[in-house]
């Protein structure tokens, strides 16, 4: 088998070797569904720094237990993806006393300019992962010789989720001792406005029928997913506004202290108290805190002075995003002072 073969790879499966012969054993349903659904199998893994977002994550978990869909919305740079990654880890490892009755099926991260952003990928990926956790569902899908993923979003929902799950419900095969959780991070990066609204609407309908499903979705607070378009529905749909997290500034302070503690050059040149003087200008943006720390760490004494200089530093911004853009300009300008290392320095910080 594979005699004289070269330049190929095989994903997954169990290999048995006997006298230079390789026998491959892959679950036929898993293999066939992977071929027919073409799911995305490369989830993201960002997580919050240990000790941060503790209360907020606890709020999300309690909301999941009481509501089928939890939508977390917050402006860019506030740490939504890290929250999604941490939540996935907490659910998967049962790191919360209330999570014994919930299994993580999928954590899907919509990334700009990647396949994950393709509207046609999300539902088949969701269906594939659900089938692995729920064998009866996988068998039901495989019994459909006309399984088709080429339709639009509405058709995918009907053909791949609604119809087979309804058949199983009517057969009495959807009674679970545990609930399943699916996380979709970065909905604002996915599809068009009408498709995002349709996705959330379809998920609501799905959860009204199947109360064992749980979804957590993160997004920027775009108008199309506001309360006017998709109102809260007790027990089914709940919003959580990240801007209302009163602990954000405290968590950013923890992040800055931790970053400094783990970078000896920065620790030796800039005191913790000095680093904390930058906190008021970060204005609850984790992305800005990250850029600030990386920039100062490149050349601690010099770059800290640059940031604390009201004339040339980043304090002159009118709001947090002006501050961020101003800081990017400062980083670029300072990187170009050293032409031998300009690109490396700039890219390391950005």
From TrEMBL:
Name recorded for this polypeptide: NACHT domain-containing protein
Presence of the UniProt keyword Isomerase in the record: no
Keywords attached to this entry: Repeat
Organism: Gymnopus androsaceus JB14
The keyword Iron-sulfur is annotated on this UniProt entry: no
Pfam families referenced in this protein's UniProt entry, alphabetically: NPHP3_N (PF24883)
Highest taxon of the lineage: Eukaryota
Ranges for domain NACHT: 68-222
